[in-house]
Design a protein that fits this description.
TIM Barrel, 8-stranded parallel β-sheet, 12 helices, Chitin disaccharide deacetylase, hydrolase, metal-binding, Glyco_hydro/deAcase_b/a-brl, YdjC-like
Length: about 280
């Protein structure tokens, strides 16, 4: 069986996981994520548990149990003046912090990966997962914020073990992990993964429309980052709010919905994959 059949779709289906990352980062993202799912074409999201707007996002999810979501395992802080830290006590995860005692920025990925102790990464990941479970929510999968496939082989393997412990799927999109998990009969993407921050702002709506029409047979995943782009967002996220606003505008557009219907593309989420990934 190919991956689309594993997930319960026809063998020749064009299948797209359209997941919204960074839920919980700040209020304008929360609002855009919910609307992009309820009124747009998106189907799931990933929650950044340590962020200031995560409690509000958890409330939104609790009021909307029909929205499938994953945990966007977070070891970085993206913003300068709007800060968050680890859920774990700083003295328990010193290798995850910079010289000032703060989380690293995404630009400092190599530094974090060079110094992070696996046991401290696991402690923090467990804290983020437990915060969601203790809130009475049931996630579908684990993925990482700014770390493709965990960034290191040992982090990937530890995360996969955590996912099995909690009965969750895992977002995998790079070789060699893709090939290994595919050989194990687990549902992973067939095609290149799209991160919306990689798209140019100029002509972005046309680019999105073309990419959507060109979704191939098999399983594809897009990680999209919608935000409302209000004044608060512009102050918090000067380098990212335009990416998020243009993502949001396409997700809720009538054009996006029309293309999905015309091209007969199935937009799905991680619930079917969750049933196939190893559980406890």
């Amino acid at each position: 069986m190919n991956v689309t059949e594993l997930l319960g779709f026809p063998a020749d289906a064009r299948l797209l996981i359209l997941n919204l990352d960074d839920f919980g980062m700040y209020p304008a993202i929360n609002a855009a994520v919910v609307r992009s799912i309820e009124d747009g074409i998106a189907t799931s999201c990933s929650l950044m548990v340590p962020c200031p707007a995560a409690p509000a996002a958890i409330c939104l999810l609790r009021d909307r149990p029909e929205i499938p979501f994953g945990i966007h395992l977070t070891l970085f802080c993206d913003t300068t003046d709007y800060r968050w830290g680890p859920l774990s006590a700083a003295e328990k995860v010193p290798s995850l912090l910079d010289k000032t005692g703060a989380l690293f920025t995404p630009k400092e990925v190599p530094t974090l990966l060079a110094q992070a102790h696996l046991d401290e990464v696991e402690l923090e990941f467990r804290a983020q997962i437990r915060a969601v479970v203790d809130a009475g929510l049931t996630p579908t999968h684990l993925d990482w914020h700014c770390l493709a496939d965990g960034g290191r082989t040992d982090i990937l393997e530890m995360t996969v073990s955590l996912a099995a412990e909690y009965g969750l799927a895992v977002r995998i999109w790079l070789e060699p992990a893709l090939g290994r998990f595919r050989e194990q009969g687990l549902p992973v993407v067939d095609h290149d993964f799209l991160d919306s921050f990689s798209l140019d702002l100029d002509g972005k709506a046309d680019r999105y429309a073309r990419l959507l029409r060109e979704v191939p047979r098999g399983l594809t995943e897009w990680a999209v980052h919608p935000g409302m782009g209000d004044a608060q967002a512009q102050a918090i996220d000067p380098g990212g709010w335009r990416v998020r606003r243009t993502d949001y505008e396409f997700l809720i557009s009538s054009l996006a919905r029309e293309i999905l219907q015309e091209e007969e593309i199935f937009v799905t989420d991680y619930r079917a994959a969750q049933r196939i990934w190893p559980g406890p």
